[in-house]
Amino acid sequence: MPISYGVTLHLGHSTLDLHNIYKPPDVNSLELGELLAHAASSPTFIGGDFNCHHPILHYPGRTNSAGRQLETALTGNPGVALLNNGEPTHLHGGRLDLSFVTDILRPCASWALHPTLTSDHFAIICHLNLPEFPSPQLPAPRWNTKLANWAKTFHAAASESIPLTSSSTTKPPRDYWFYNDRVRELNSRITFTRRLYRRKPTAQNRALLQVVVSAANRRKADIRREHWLNWCRGLDSHSSLGEMWRQLQVIAGNKRPIRPPHPDPAREAEKLASLFATRTCTDNLPAETRDRLTELLPGRNDQVDRACEDQSNTNTSLTLLELRRALKTSGDTSPGADRTTYSMITNAGSDGHSALLTLFNASWEACKLP
Asked: Which InterPro entries does this one have (predicted)?
């Protein structure tokens, strides 16, 4: 049976199938119906040595079985065109090497013999000047802004396009591991004396600064020695090696100690809230003050109700100009829980400001946080 090889070329959003066929001379069967049916419906090039003889190939000799089968397959698939122009492709005059293309590719295809005789067959040159297939135009992405995580969006954009100022954490001061109120007081004295010397750089102030710094350093050395001895006294056979290593790292200034959290933060919060409510309760006021507040309460409630029903000219949606005027232009301060700084919002661009404006106005109209 015939030998066939095929490959598919991907051109933009379209494809071109290439098939090479060889039918040995001693094989009489040539089943091309399925392949030609595919070529009629999809851009395809078919070439090879078919060993066919038939008048449709401009062969003047006798017709063989393969030629009759080829004529039947071409008649049943009019969407396939033969490129050969009738010139012999074999040394003895046969039209054995055939080339077929899908009919829609016929206007941009050319066929010619090459003068070189590689064996007993002439070489064939086929050109397919295919038009440039444009890349598919994908629809513009659409996002569901109602379910957007704006903090995560800002951080992802910043990580993609804004370089970090530093990838390392701030190294703690050398006196961090033995820092206490006394050390803070000594540091404050040194800072105050240095400022005094900078304002008035006299010899007297310089001598004062040297004395203060020297005395403070001696006192901090004593505090450091005392803390070190206390820590060493606390070591025994039950001390873990990990805890000792962590403390040594802190002393070396390589790591801040982890501050232990409150053992029961919820109870402490309830305690503070209860204390605040007790201290601010109206029961602590004099009796005449409470009576006066009771008399004024209905009138105040009426004023609040009328104010809520009154349509003020300020109860309108925020405009883009008002939003940009409200943006902070000075340096960044410490960000909130979402870690979004003022400069990130300021440099979000027109699209970012429009999205932020839509979010703010929707929250304003719904009277709830997004």
From this structure: Endo/exonu/phosph_ase_sf (IPR036691), Endo/exonuclease/phosphatase (IPR005135)
- Cβ–Cβ under 8 Å, residues 68 and 28: no
Dihedral-angle region of residue 339 (phi above 0 means left; psi in -120 to 50 means alpha; beta otherwise): left
- How far is residue 120's CA from residue 93's CA, in Å, rounded to a whole number? 10
Q: What would the 3-class secondary structure string for 138-154 be?
A: CCCCCCCHHHCCHHHHH
- Count each helix (H run) and each strand (E run) in the chain, helices first: 11, 7
CA proximity to 33, closest of 86, 65, 70: 70
Polymer length of the chain: 370
From 355, 367, 364, select the one nearest 149 (Cα to Cα).
355
* C-alpha to C-alpha distance for 278 and 289, rounded to whole angstroms: 17
Q: Tell me which residue of 14, 19, 80, 82 sits closest to 47, measured CA to CA.
A: 19
Mean pLDDT across 170-197: 83
Task: For the chain, give the mean pLDDT.
Answer: 82
The two tokens of residue 214 are 């020297």
3 state SS of 305: helix
Share of the chain above pLDDT 90, in %: 13
Predicted model pTM? 0.38
Q: Tell me how far apart the alpha carbons of residues 205 and 232 are, in angstroms, rounded to a whole number.
A: 40
* DSSP label at residue 80: E
In this structure, what DSSP letter does residue 178 have? G
pLDDT digits (tens, 9 = 90+) for 204-225: 989 999 999 999 999 999 998 8
Burial class (CB in 10 A: 0-12, 13-18, 19+), 190: middle
* DSSP secondary structure letters along 94-117: ---EEEEEEGGGGGGEEEEEEEEE
Residues in contact with 88: Cβ distance below 8 Å, sequence separation at least 6, in sequence order: 94, 95, 122
**End-to-end CA separation in angstroms for the chain:** 72
For residue 237, give both structure tokens.
């056979």
